[in-house]
Amino acid sequence: ILNVEQSPQSLHVQEGDSTNFTCSFPSSNFYALHWYRWETAKSPEALFVMTLNGDEKKKGRISATLNTKEGYSYLYIKGSQPEDSATYLCALNFGNEKLTFGTGTRLTIIP
Amino acid sequence: NAGVTQTPKFQVLKTGQSMTLQCAQDMNHEYMSWYRQDPGMGLRLIHYSVGAGITDQGEVPNGYNVSRSTTEDFPLRLLSAAPSQTSVYFCASSSLTSGRAYEQFFGPGTRLTVL
Asked: Which of A1, A32, A100 faces B101 most closely, judged by CB atoms?
């Protein structure tokens, strides 16, 4: 079983502050890394898909980086807003179409 | 496009009952999958399919059956429900040819309680 680990498990951040969290994975058989945003009572929605070492993606105040050689990805949120409160899931394709998910980082923004 | 749809949204079963969770997608995706989500466990793959007539087991297949007779539909059958199958079930689909590295689109989920 290939483990995808996310840290921290949960995070409380003051509105306006910036934050980041980590996804770690075994670098062998890496094909792609996905970040999903999952709001309570909704279904996960794709944020980013990254495949290349050194890849950086950005969508508004959210960005992500990827290091496949050392097996980690960071998700950054700049100037947190209450609507950023969600669980952020990391998932990997290890050489095929199946996704292996981490357990997520639950982010709560404090107004 | 409706995307990925799931029915029902909620279901309560008694131990030993059987039922089918429905999943359909209108994006012509080759790949479809079923996950269960339990507290502290993340999303775990139950079964998946890479095309009509092809299915395979995921990480936690016991107690579940699937079939894929059409590209659009991928029903999940609980043969004899057990309390351990109380969970939220998500269906997802992805294109194998879009160049988006198998990005998956999720349905709204089915919350199942087995008493």
From this structure: A32
Please give the helix or strand (H or E) that residue B65 lies within, else none: strand B64-66
Instruction: Give DSSP secondary structure letters for A25-94.
Output: ---TT--EEEEEEE-TTS--EEEEEE-STT-EEEETTEEEEEETTTTEEEEEESS--GGG-EEEEEEEES
Q: Which of A43, A101, A103 sits opposite B107 (nearest CB)?
A: A43
Count of Cβ atoms closer than 10 Å to residue B17 Cβ:
14
For B12-26, the pLDDT digits (tens) are: 999 999 999 999 999
Q: For B95, which residue in chain A has the nearest alpha carbon?
A: A97
Interchain CB distance below 8 Å, B101 and A49: yes
Tens digits of per-residue pLDDT, A45-95? 999 999 888 889 999 999 999 999 999 999 999 999 999 999 999 999 887
Check A32 against B102: CB less than 8 A apart. Answer: yes
Measured in whole angstroms, the distance separating CA A93 from the mean position of its chain's CA atoms is: 14
Considering only CB atoms, B41 lies closest to which of A89, A98, A103, namely A103
What phi and psi values does residue B33 have, to the nearest 5 degrees? -150, 160
